[in-house]
Design a protein that fits this description.
Layout: E1 4-7, H1 14-25, E2 28-31, H2 32-41, H3 45-56, H4 62-75, E3 82-85, H5 91-103, E4 110-115, H6 118-125, E5 128-131, E6 137-139, E7 160-161, H7 168-182, H8 184-191, E8 195-199, H9 204-215
Parallel strand pairs: 1-3, 1-4, 2-3, 4-8
Antiparallel strand pairs: 5-6, 5-7
The protein binds adenosine-5'-diphosphate and zinc ion.
Zinc ion binds at residues 131, 133-134, 136, 151, 153-154, 156.
Amino acid sequence: MKNLILLGPPGAGKGTQARNLCEAFGFVQLSTGDMLREAKKDQSELGKKVANIMARGELVTDEIVIGLIEKKLTNEENSKGFIFDGFPRTLAQADALRDLLETIGQKLDHVVELYVDDEKLVQRIIGRFTCSSCGELYHKTTKPPKNPSICDICGSKDTFNYRQDDNEDSLKIRLLAYYRDTSPLIGYYHAHNKLRKVNGLGSVDEIQSKIRNILS
Ligand code: ADP
Ligand code: ZN
């Protein structure tokens, strides 16, 4: 059993790589971004509380995301391992994760840093959208669907969904939050001898196989 963090700026490809690893090896993906978007969609108290913060591109409080992760870690049946995607994002979250894993008798094995330069991140994020029924990712210039309103993969009509924070203003704030609050984790995990760097430029499959090499 292996526990893995995917670390990197918005648009680095964490979600895509996490999904592929889960499909291939049965990991459980824990994405705090997905959990928070779920909460927003359900109109829960939590969802209402975080909606504006997320739309602006700022970080929600450590307390909230640590609470979400704690609930999953203590309830999830899992024998293959966890992939943390978008968590931890601050040093306080990293400390909390270490303690939580210890409580359930586990440890962190690897932290994979996906690095991509800012210009490329902006290109990737501005114009991306997903099919809300199957999760397939598209991009208006680099990967458009064959028919503008139909998903190539599952055939659903009018299910394309744009993230509210994938606009230039919010993205600037998300990048700032990454460099200010999250990038110190690179040093933190390097110091703990867990950090592995992977170039996030390249095909999805190339990057996937580099990550698999780290796991094996
Ligand atoms: P990104 O593409 O920016 O990596 P995510 O889907 O991981 O996006 O997260 C979207 C938003 O959800 C973030 O901009 C932030 O507002 C909130 N969020 C997600 N995870 C965390 C976290 N660990 N700590 C604080 N805020 C978070
Ligand atoms: Zn689809």
